[in-house]
Task: inverse folding
């Protein structure tokens, strides 16, 4: 879901072909979750961007690294709309993604944004 949302941040178009490629060998439950989150983020994109914008400091939303934006979009979507995923799990996953795919300081920044969002 992260890679699909990351791609979406560039062109704001769903890529159903890539979704099929990413999920071809996955179990049905995993595919269903990825589709739920991906299509949830894309259908609520403007709302999620607005929510994130309210909680970032020192940056306009268009100045965030696209990787960080994609991570925040996923986490804020899960926190807002996916009741089966606890807040702490969403944050932990966001931090793991930031540590793996973004800059050295991104995990701390993302954690701060999500903490403000949760309040």
Result:
């Amino acid at each position: 879901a992260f890679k699909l949302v990351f791609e979406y941040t560039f062109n704001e178009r769903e890529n159903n072909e890539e979704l099929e490629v990413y999920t071809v060998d996955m179990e049905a439950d995993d595919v269903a979750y990825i589709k739920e989150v991906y299509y949830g983020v894309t259908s609520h994109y403007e709302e999620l961007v607005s929510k994130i914008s309210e909680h970032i400091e020192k940056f306009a939303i268009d100045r965030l690294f696209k990787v960080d934006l994609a991570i925040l979009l996923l986490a804020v979507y899960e926190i807002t709309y996916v009741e089966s995923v606890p807040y702490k799990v969403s944050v932990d996953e966001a931090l793991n993604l930031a540590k793996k795919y973004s800059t050295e300081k991104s995990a701390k920044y993302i954690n701060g944004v999500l903490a403000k969002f949760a309040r």
